[in-house]
Amino acid sequence: MRVAVVTGGSGGIGRAVCLRLAQAGFTVAAVGRSAERLTALEKELPVQGYRCDVTDPDQVAALLPAS
Q1: Which pTM was predicted?
Q2: pLDDT above 80 (res 64)
Q3: How far apart are CA 18 and CA 16, in angstroms?
Q4: CA 35 → CA 25, 55, 64, distances in Å?
Q5: pLDDT tens-digit profile of 12-63?
Q6: Which of 20, 29, 40, 42 is nearest to 1 (CA)?
Q7: Is 52 strand, coil or helix?
Q8: 37, 44, 55, 60: most buried by Cβ count inside 10 Å?
Q9: Ranges of H-type helices in the chain
């Protein structure tokens, strides 16, 4: 299984990247700040959305599983 994580995935270039990766057979995790935009993206594309502001270390730590 090929998995891609796309930050900024809910809009603009990130959305286009999500689309292309999904078309190429990747399992796509779209990360973005807007829950509304991520929900809309999940309805349009075969992606899983994750709400996270990647400029906030606490939010990134909460998103990633502990190793």
Answers
A1: 0.88
A2: yes
A3: 5
A4: 24, 16, 18
A5: 999 999 999 999 999 999 999 999 999 999 999 999 999 999 999 999 999 8
A6: 29
A7: coil
A8: 37
A9: 12-23, 35-44, 57-63
What is the architecture, at CATH level 2, of domain 3-63? Answer: 3-Layer(aba) Sandwich (3.40)
Tens of pLDDT, residues 24-33: 999 999 999 9
Helix (H) or strand (E) holding 30: strand 27-32
Residue 66 burial class via C-beta count within 10 angstroms: exposed 0-12, middle 13-18, buried 19 and up? exposed
Cβ atoms < 10 Å from Cβ of 64: 10
The rounded distance, in Å, linking the Cα atoms of 24 and 47 is 13
Domain locations along the chain: 3-63
